[in-house]
Amino acid sequence: MLTVFNHPLITHKLALMRDKNTSTKDFAQQLDEIAGLMAFEVSRDLPTKPKFVETPMGPCNTMELAQDVVLVPILRAGLGMVDGIRDLIPTAKVGFIGMFRHEDTLEPEEYFAKFPNMSEATVMVLDPMLATGGSASAAITKIKERGAKNIKLVCLVGVPEGVKKIEEDHPDVDIYLAALDEKLNEIGYIVPGLGDAGDRIFGTK
Ligand code: PRP
Ligand code: URA
Q1: DSSP-assigned letter for residue 135
Q2: Is 133 helix (H, G, I), strand (E, B) or coil?
Q3: Mutate to test the pocket of ligand 1, among 135, 156, 157 (most ligand atoms within 8 A of CB)
Q4: What is the pLDDT of residue 180?
C-alpha cells in the first residue's frame, strides 16, 4: 500500500526544505516537524489493548498501545526523522542501519547495523529519500532477517522507480511519502527533489 500525504502543512514545510537557499538548521527542523506529522498518520493502525484506569471521576475502561514501536533510521539521513517521531511516541525504541549508496553504481552497501528485538514490534524504517529504492529495500531485507514482521517504510520524497522496487521486493511493506516526485536524473537524484538529504541535514559539502 502506498500513501502519499499531500497535506497542506506537510507540503508547506517540504517546500521550505526543497528551497536550495534554506539553511542546514532550518532544513533539519522542517524534516523533524514533517516526520512528526507523518508519524501521526502512520501510527493510525497501531494495535491497542484494553486498559483500566481510575479517573478523578471514577472507573474508565480505555485502551493503550499493545506492542513496541521500533524506529530504524537508515544512516545518515534517516537520523533526521527520529526526534520528530519520538516526540510523538516517546516509548519507541531505535535501531540503526548504515547504508552508503555508491556514486557510480547506485548500489547500496551496508556498513552498520544494531537493532532491538523487533519480532513483535511495528517497525518504521526511516529515510527522507526513496530514489532507486536500493537502500530501503536492502535495509528492509536485513530488518526482516532480524525477525521483524510488521514493517512500514516512511520517506519524505519518492519517485515511481523507488516505489516499484519496494512493491516488488517487499509487497508486505506499507510505503508512506510526503510527496511523489517526477523522476530520477541521470545520476540517480530525485527531480525536483531536494538535493542530497544527508549533506543538507548535517552541513557536509
Ligand atoms: C541517500 C538517502 C537514501 C539513499 C536513497 O543516502 O538518504 O539512503 O541515498 O537512494 P536509493 O533509493 O537510490 O538507494 P546516501 O547513500 O547518500 O547516504 P547518506 O544518508 O549518508 O548521505
Ligand atoms: N539521495 C539523496 O539524498 N537525494 C536524492 O535525490 C537521491 C538520493
Answers
A1: H
A2: coil
A3: 135
A4: 97
Residues 6 or more apart whose Cβ sits within 8 Å of residue 110: 97, 98, 99, 138, 139, 142
Residues with Cβ within 6 A of ligand 2? Answer: 77, 129, 131, 189-190, 193, 196-198
Secondary-structure percent of the chain, ordered helix, strand, coil, rounded to 5: 35, 35, 30
Residue-wise pLDDT tens digits, 78-129: 999 999 999 999 999 999 999 999 988 999 999 999 999 999 999 999 999 9
Q: Write down the residue that cell numbers 525477525 correspond to.
A: 147
- The residue ranges of the chain whose pLDDT is under 70 are none
pTM over 0.85: yes
- The structural domains of the chain, ordered by start, are 2-47+65-202 (3.40.50.2020)
Q: Measured between alpha carbons, how far is residue 7 from residues 25, 31, 163 in Å?
A: 23, 15, 19
